[in-house]
Protein backbone atom coordinates (compact mmCIF):
# COMPACT_ATOMS: atom_id res chain seq x y z
CA UNK A 1 0.00 0.00 0.00
CA UNK A 2 2.80 2.39 0.89
CA UNK A 3 4.69 1.61 -2.32
CA UNK A 4 1.56 2.19 -4.39
CA UNK A 5 0.94 5.58 -2.80
CA UNK A 6 4.59 6.56 -3.23
CA UNK A 7 4.51 5.64 -6.92
CA UNK A 8 1.24 7.57 -7.35
CA UNK A 9 2.81 10.57 -5.62
CA UNK A 10 5.84 10.57 -7.92
CA UNK A 11 3.77 10.13 -11.08
CA UNK A 12 1.30 12.88 -10.14
CA UNK A 13 4.14 15.20 -9.14
CA UNK A 14 5.76 14.81 -12.56
CA UNK A 15 2.44 15.19 -14.39
CA UNK A 16 1.51 18.28 -12.40
CA UNK A 17 4.87 19.92 -13.06
CA UNK A 18 4.60 19.15 -16.76
CA UNK A 19 1.02 20.38 -17.05
CA UNK A 20 1.87 23.63 -15.24
CA UNK A 21 4.81 24.24 -17.54
CA UNK A 22 2.60 23.68 -20.60
CA UNK A 23 0.26 26.54 -19.67
CA UNK A 24 0.42 29.68 -21.75
CA UNK A 25 1.93 32.69 -20.02
CA UNK A 26 -0.62 35.36 -19.12
CA UNK A 27 1.66 38.25 -18.24
CA UNK A 28 5.02 39.80 -18.88
CA UNK A 29 6.82 37.84 -16.20
CA UNK A 30 9.26 34.98 -16.57
CA UNK A 31 7.26 33.40 -19.39
CA UNK A 32 8.05 36.32 -21.68
CA UNK A 33 11.74 35.97 -20.85
CA UNK A 34 11.78 32.51 -22.41
CA UNK A 35 9.65 33.41 -25.41
CA UNK A 36 6.23 32.89 -23.85
CA UNK A 37 5.21 36.46 -24.55
CA UNK A 38 5.49 36.07 -28.31
CA UNK A 39 2.28 35.50 -30.23
CA UNK A 40 2.36 32.57 -32.61
CA UNK A 41 -0.04 30.39 -34.51
CA UNK A 42 1.02 27.39 -32.42
CA UNK A 43 -0.21 28.88 -29.16
CA UNK A 44 -3.34 26.72 -29.13
CA UNK A 45 -7.02 27.35 -28.73
CA UNK A 46 -9.18 27.97 -25.73
CA UNK A 47 -10.40 24.34 -25.80
CA UNK A 48 -6.85 23.13 -25.33
CA UNK A 49 -6.33 25.54 -22.42
CA UNK A 50 -9.56 24.41 -20.76
CA UNK A 51 -8.58 20.76 -21.11
CA UNK A 52 -5.12 21.52 -19.75
CA UNK A 53 -6.73 23.32 -16.80
CA UNK A 54 -8.89 20.27 -16.12
CA UNK A 55 -5.90 17.94 -16.33
CA UNK A 56 -3.96 20.15 -13.92
CA UNK A 57 -6.81 20.26 -11.41
CA UNK A 58 -7.41 16.50 -11.56
CA UNK A 59 -3.70 15.84 -11.15
CA UNK A 60 -3.51 18.24 -8.19
CA UNK A 61 -6.45 16.52 -6.48
CA UNK A 62 -4.85 13.09 -6.99
CA UNK A 63 -1.53 14.46 -5.73
CA UNK A 64 -3.19 15.83 -2.59
CA UNK A 65 -5.07 12.55 -2.01
CA UNK A 66 -1.81 10.60 -2.35
CA UNK A 67 -0.12 12.84 0.22
CA UNK A 68 -3.00 12.54 2.69
CA UNK A 69 -3.30 8.79 2.15
CA UNK A 70 0.44 8.25 2.59
CA UNK A 71 0.41 10.33 5.76
CA UNK A 72 -2.51 8.34 7.18
CA UNK A 73 -0.91 5.00 6.34
CA UNK A 74 2.44 5.97 7.83
CA UNK A 75 0.98 7.49 11.00
CA UNK A 76 -1.68 4.92 11.79
CA UNK A 77 -0.05 1.84 10.18
CA UNK A 78 -3.28 0.64 8.56
From TrEMBL:
GO BP annotations listed: protein secretion
Transmembrane segments annotated in the record for this chain: 55-74
Chief location bin: membrane
GO CC annotation, single: plasma membrane
Subcellular location: Cell membrane; Membrane
Membrane topology: Multi-pass membrane protein
One Pfam family matching this protein: SecG
Molecular function GO terms recorded: protein-transporting ATPase activity
Keywords: Cell membrane, Membrane, Protein transport, Translocation, Transmembrane, Transmembrane helix, Transport
Biological function: Involved in protein export. Participates in an early event of protein translocation.
Family the UniProt entry places it in: Belongs to the SecG family.
The protein, known as: Protein-export membrane protein SecG
Amino acid sequence: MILTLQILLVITSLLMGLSILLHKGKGGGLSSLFGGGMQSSLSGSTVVEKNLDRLTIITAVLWLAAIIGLNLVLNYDL
